[in-house]
Design a protein that fits this description.
Blueprint (H helix, E strand, L loop, with lengths): L2 H7 L8 H15 L11 H8 L3 H13 L3 E4 L3 E4 L4 H6 L9 H17 L1 H7 L2 H11 L13 H14 L3 H19 L15 H8 L4 H11 L1 H12 L1
């Protein structure tokens, strides 16, 4: 057997810690038993005896799952399965000043894609009161020149209202998660690039298009509204 054949025949050593392995085993148990949110899980002692590890290891693994939002402790009930809040989990690590520039760019790009894609929800679920609320936000907005960024406060208020209109709690959670990174990218000069194509759809124009209740038109208008942001991200890549 030559060296290459020998290397291919040797299995990789599992270098995960015991806590890592128990954590994954616990998740497998929850899935195998088809546990749903609100269902209790076995007690620490039972898990310790079943897995043949100390209660300390079980406790540390359970604490990890609590941090992930997969389980929670209830008084007089014990530990139960919990439906995790995905945006809340991600938000804990969304600290702009410790994220590198590439990650911040990706986060900002994700925000743009989400907002173009949620046009159908906005059009289908916006009430007349919602549209009037959007109009109230933009009627006092000072329109920026076509070569500058939108005013960050109006941008956050207006787009935050769009997320609210979707009535989708997960989307609203993602908006809260993206907000710190978005604000940082916006105010730090990270995307402060001069763009040759200066055409865009204003917030006021978006409101008027929303009044038409045409999802396709609103989606296209949102894409044009965000066009300069997309171009600034492209300019970052070329730079």
């Amino acid at each position: 057997m030559d060296t290459n054949e020998m290397k291919n025949s040797i299995s990789l050593i599992d270098t995960r810690s015991l806590v890592d392995k128990v954590e994954m085993n616990l998740i497998d148990i929850f899935i195998t038993r088809k546990l749903n949110p609100g269902d209790p899980i076995p007690k620490e002692m039972e898990l310790s005896e079943a897995m043949g590890v100390s209660r300390t290891v079980i406790r540390e693994s359970l604490n990890r799952l609590k941090t992930m939002g997969l389980i929670e402790s209830k008084k007089h009930i014990g530990t139960i399965i919990k439906s995790p809040d995905l945006s809340s989990i991600l938000q804990k690590s969304m600290i702009p000043r410790i994220l590198d520039e590439g990650t911040l760019k990706d986060v900002f790009e994700m925000r743009l894609v989400i907002e173009v894609g949620m046009a159908d929800l906005v059009v289908n679920r916006a009430t007349d009161e919602d549209i009037e609320a959007l109009y109230s936000i933009v009627q006092n907005e000072i329109s920026p020149s076509s070569n500058t960024l939108f005013d960050v406060d109006y941008e956050i208020e207006f787009h935050g209202k769009l997320y609210e209109i979707t009535r989708n709690e997960t989307l609203k959670g993602f908006q809260r998660m993206l907000l710190p990174a978005f604000h940082y990218v916006y105010t730090s000069g990270l995307i402060d690039k001069t763009i040759a194509d200066k055409k865009y759809v204003s917030h006021t124009e978006l409101v008027e298009i929303l009044r038409l209740r045409d999802a396709d038109k609103f989606r296209k208008a949102m894409r044009r509204h965000l066009e300069n942001h997309f171009k600034r991200l492209q300019a970052m890549e070329e730079f």
